[in-house]
């Protein structure tokens, strides 16, 4: 694999929705970007030779350290061979992780020897998404208010990785034994960021957390990363890394000023499959129902038994197909919000099944992906949505998607994407991989229209 001197950044996303969000930031800023769903070989890269950013979508956020040990080294070696000056390990903007699931610390331990760098910026804040970091503590918007992460109404009670610590260095210290520094707001706003970074490095702190609360501080963080990248740099963070770099690249003329966003034509029908438990997605399902979508509950508890799950998917397919053939869009969901009794039933079924929970969660995601492909194949659908960060990876793999490119912005973190090499997608040409926390209430209607929300406003995202 031959490195290309004009590449700017390579990235691995620890879930599929986050990976597409990185592609969105770069692609709509004027950086041609491709997102592969498997590590690319030379032939695959040659088909996207014009792309200055190359990403690989993954599922590490929902996996164990043992899975990471088996899978991440090869992926990181591929990114190293791509040869971009900055390689980014993309994590959720709410830092979802734990020592036993989605360990960011273990990913850093595996990435540093392969991707190098004198230091490793940790930038999770993304003000454009309503994610702010001040003095090392992460805050996120929910319900129109800004909450410290450990008091956030969704993240503090996340079903897999509840966040009980807002100081990201303290949270990460549970996953990796390494000194960590901080370049705080005072340094960023006072022209002392370089000195603060130097002090961290002098103290042996190679992982350095970066505050950011607004456009000025995110751009200054981008400058710090780019000017101190050395020959190569391994960065960790949300798509805030790309927001920061894009802001700096524009300031130095590496990118043109912001262009008018692209749009896609409307379609008559879409299908949505969702395993998200987030209140944001629940509000979107309710709004879709009011907008004339037909919604169906899918019993995820059945996934504890493969035969029962197959029958449940067959039933969901019949119901969804009947509505689509009548000209209606559909949403097929396993839950409506964190308080849906279906979640308790599913947890009980998983506990009684005698299989690892991650195996059943993967079965749910893959089943929803196959369901979307079958609906598309039989109804002529060309546009679909997969909702749920952990779900999207397994569902997209089940569809056999080879690569994605960004087509049109819909809401921050959830672009409309074009499929490339989709072996089992049933004719789908366009897809949205939507994290549970992304999009406004009318998001599914926005997907149907192919453009921004009806107000034309891109809103900060509730988590």
Question: How would you describe this structure in keywords?
Answer:
single chain, 463 residues, alpha/beta, Rossmann fold, Molybdenum Cofactor Biosythetic Enzyme, Chain A, 15-stranded mixed sheet, 18 strands, 39% helix, 4-carb_acid_sugar_kinase_N, transferase, Type III effector Hrp-dependent outer protein, 4-carb_acid_sugar_kinase_N_sf, nucleotide-binding
Please give a structural write-up.
The chain has 15 helices and 18 strands. It has helices at 16-27, 42-47, 65-82, 104-115, 168-173, 185-189, 193-202, 215-227, 240-251, 279-290, 306-325, 341-353, 357-379, 389-399, 443-449; strands spanning 9-13, 33-36, 53-57, 86-90, 120-123, 131-134, 137-142, 145-148, 180-183, 207-210, 233-237, 271-274, 294-297, 330-333, 383-387, 403-411, 414-420, 430-434. The protein is globular and about 65 Å long. It has two domains: 9-251, Putative sugar-binding, N-terminal domain (Rossmann fold, 3-Layer(aba) Sandwich); 271-449, Molybdenum Cofactor Biosythetic Enzyme, Chain A, CATH 3.40.980. By secondary structure, it is α/β, with parallel strands linked by helices. A 15-stranded mixed sheet has the order 9-10-5-11-4-1-3-2-16-17-18-15-12-14-13, sandwiched between helices. Helix 2 (42-47) links the parallel strand 2 (33-36) and strand 3 (53-57).
